[in-house]
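LOG
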Amino acid sequence: MKKQLRKKYYWSPDDIIKKNCTWNVVFGERSNGKTYGVLDYFLDRYLNHGYQMALIRRWRVDFQGKRGQSMFDSLECNGFGENVIKKKTKGRYDCVHYYAGKWYLAKYDHELDKKIPSSQPFAIAFSLTEYEHDKSTSYPKINSILMDEALSRNPLPDEFTLLTNVLSTIIRDRGPEDDIKIFLLGNTVNKYSPLFSDMGLSRKIFDKMKPGQIDIYKYDGTDLTVAVEYCQSAAKFGGKKSDVFFAFNTA
């Protein structure tokens, strides 16, 4: 029997990473694998280099209870039914344990019927509304930074200032040479977020972008660079199985 080739519809951060920019802004349709792609990439960085992740959201409630525990579910079982954590750690870990705003790689013990976590977290939660509680703490091992749902029509007051304050707390006096990666992810429906103007980017620019396009922005007198990618639609890779639930044609 011939081995059936699986369809690949997940977006990959490989192309934008090659641009080697200070900030990476990625937007596109929902559920095309943006978050999965970045978390998968950041997991590799942790396993290969020990770089911890910072996961940033607007409110602490975004990490409470089942929201926090499910943050890495896609790596425990992705769209192809693979346990990416188990595969990449060669069975040493197979799940994630969440406790007090931190995520730990863990191994499920069937005899004890519980997760046995590693001693150190691989990811730490940060909320924009509570950054004052974090600013006196040092995070020298965090080199991978992700803000999901970053593009919103209803941002917090002075949201970009709050975000840069959180980043300052994490980065401290380190620089790009320390291999720090910052990703902001958002959905196409929110691409007119005030975030762009706060970053000195014109919102009109994004009307001209095509799926798959990556634009680079530079800032005079600095080494700061921002890469912006408009993700390809999942349809380009054959679509998602779930598309059938929303394929209404009322014409």
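LOG (cont.) second protein
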Amino acid sequence: MSDAPRYRFAPSPTGFFHVGGARTALYNWALALRTGGTFVLRIEDTDESRNSPEWTQGIIDALAWLGIDSSHPQFEGPYFQSQNAALHVAAAHKLFEQGNAYWCDLTADQIQARSKETGKQGYDGYSRDRGLTGGPGQVLRFRVPAGQTIVQDLVRGQVEFSNDTIEDFVLLRSNGSPMFLLANVVDDIEMKVSNVVRAEEHLPNTPKQQMIWDALGRTPPIWAHVPVLVNEQRKKLSKRRDKVALEQYREEGILPDAMVNYLMTLGWAPAGDTEIVPWQHIVDEFRLEDVNHSPAFFDIKKLNSFNGDYVRAMSLDEFIAGCAPHLENAPWPAERFNSEVFAQLALLVQTRVVTLSEVPAMVDFVFLENPIVDEDAWMKTMGSDFAINVLRDYADVVTSCEWNHDALKAALEAWTDANGLKLGKTQAPIRVAITGRTVGPPLFESIEVLGRDETLRRLQAAITRIG
């Protein structure tokens, strides 16, 4: 094994890309970059019933979105675990020949019956000395030695496991296929993996895998088990219960740099007063020894806060380009969209959105023939003589006033002052008439972009509806 460390990320292609997996991948990628090592991508695809080629491509695409580039010289793979099946089986038979494993023909029902008789939970080692040589219906079990197994973990320190609490685990199923524990070790040996950085949930597997490493005469890798991600109820993030798919956040307009920065702070924090730091700063600082082993709260509100900061830091051109995918499925007809008009609006909305998916709803009033009306907002702002008076008088003013946002604002301010009112109160019915909502980009800049004729038409339409 060369001096340069080799880190591996080994996901299963069985669904959308979990944010917890994304965090683990980023930890490995940052370490590989900082140490001059290699990031190895291995697709653990041996469960044919759950695997799908599109999920594999989804993993590769998700990693690329996070900046883990398969063309980078420190990226290696993807490898596929299924291609190593012969090596897995060969290793299992070697363990049998060495006396580290034995065949067992007990069924699950027989194991359960013996457990009731002996009072020992699970498999009790019944076939250890029966001398079975393999055959239909038999599994190959690892012979767990007496004593204890000590795992040195960079995050959790020294973790001790009493071997008498670990039953003789299965290496080969009765159909001859290898179990995950064996395949995982053999692949790591074959790919010269020196560092295994993975989720805390794999820690109980580690003593078993370390036993296999030792039995095969190899030095185990450096272990590091990073904290599990939990929701606001402090329960482990679940695909069935929580929003965990990286693809969903991408579709909602979370920026990759914001997601990367946020995920890296789940269990670790950069030095200084802010957690929002450039990727290279993270790479330079990140150490596994500094990772907290307590569960890390995946706080969507905080992620959105990170994203808002990143959105505001974009150049206008970057913001416009980032919005493009979210404008493709907007509610207006394609022929009504005007990129030059959108560029004017982009300046107005960039500081008012948290995710890019919010942008279409902020600007749709310009590209739709009629604005989408928030009926609750309408009822609150238009249900009085006051509203119709504001709309009529403002329509009279804007018919002939100079057409820029300063003049449009000054016109309403003059009417507001003359009637002893506050600007916020008089703006509300005008905003609903123009945009259909009570919130949105700056009102007078929006009116300027919309144009005099369309503004007057919408004011009159609102007056007619009220009347």
